[in-house]
Amino acid sequence: MAFAGRDSVKACSEAAYAARSVSGVGVCRYPSVGLVRRCGAAFLAVVLLAAALVSASLVVLPADRAGAQTAQTFVANTGQADGGASLLSNDLGQAFTTGSNPGGYSLRSVGVEFSTIDSALNPSHLTVGIYTESSGFPGSSLGTLTNPANFPASTSDQTLTFTSTGIDLDASTTYFLVVDTSSDNASSSIRNTASDSEDSGALAGWSIGNRDVSRAWNSTGAYSNGLSALKISLGGVSKSLLVSNSGQANGGTGNFVQHDHAQAFTTGANAAGYTLTGVDYSFPQINDGSLAGKLTAEIRSDNSGQPGTTVATLTKPGTISAGTNSFTHSGVALAANTT
Question: Could you give the 3-state DSSP secondary structure of residue 320?
């Protein structure tokens, strides 16, 4: 189990198990800790609503720090030498790689340097989003940023900022920034750089790929590699890992599908409390393609050592696949020194 946030959090040393039966068969892989033991006053409850064959180890990740956070620039290359421009008659993508912060990152803003903005271009023509990387090209969308209110017409370089309340990024992972255009905007373009370097001040481990990718604006097919990188900046907040037991040895198996399961956890002493923004589960095996519809992940209060009332319900992924799957929330407030 792992959490992220501002100050240290004391993890319970035992797994809590809520034995409410539902139909189905399966197993749950537990860390090497005891079962059916009280940890305190708050629980992560996992409810399986139908049958599936699953082997799972519980991981809880990451939370933003409670209180105000200072946005920071992750990486940029806007200070590098110009090197031509990419026309917005194409969808454009730019790879970037995150740093090694264990809690990952929350992307809040993207700066894109335009070399020309024609008066006919308006915000409705462009969609700017973050995508996974698949074989060196954009894969699946992780989220869309909000466009600025206006695109000022200009033949001079200008940087426009696209914002988000937070797109979660894993550590040491390559993603793509994609600028998708809904029409042929060949009179507008995004500036490229002739340099393969990043600006000084980037967070450790962050980098921008050395070339962009593109495809025709009306294509849904494959992208092609360009010759140089788009000029961009990426910013947001780093997430801090609060606590984890996901690296511990497994301690046998339990019936996962036929019972609801809960894991207690205890927060630390930070006076401002904590904000939980996600829970990750690692599923080594999935034999049911519709598993996502059969799971509910909740934060619950404690009721004499058992899960009590629901504090929050986490948003589950659209599909569950073997490996790590993230259940997210806009922010669950957790008090200090509370289990």
Answer: coil
Q: Which residues contact 32 (CB under 8 A, 6 or more apart)?
A: 248, 249, 250, 251, 252
Which residues, in sequence order, are bridge partners of residue 160? Answer: 112
Cα(85)–Cα(176) distance, integer angstroms: 18
Alpha carbons 44 and 310: distance in angstroms, whole number: 10
Tell me what percent of the residues of the chain surpass a pLDDT of 90: 48
Listing from the earlier edge strand, what are the strands of the sheet with 126-134? 137-144, 126-134, 174-181, 90-97, 207-216, 224-225
The letter for the amino acid at 303 is N
Average pLDDT, the chain: 78
With beta carbons less than 8 A apart as the criterion, state whether 143 and 108 touch: no
Which tens digit of pLDDT belongs to each residue from 131-140? 999 999 999 9
Three-state SS for 262?
Answer: strand
C-alpha distances (whole Å) from 56 to each of 190, 241, 277, 299, 311 are 45, 21, 21, 19, 24
Residue 42 has what pLDDT? 63
Instruction: Give the amino acid at 118.
Output: D
Alpha-carbon dihedral 163, 92, 174, 79, rounded to 10 degrees: -70
> Using one digit for the tens of pLDDT, what is the confidence trace for 257-304?
567 778 888 888 888 787 777 777 777 777 776 777 778 888 898 888
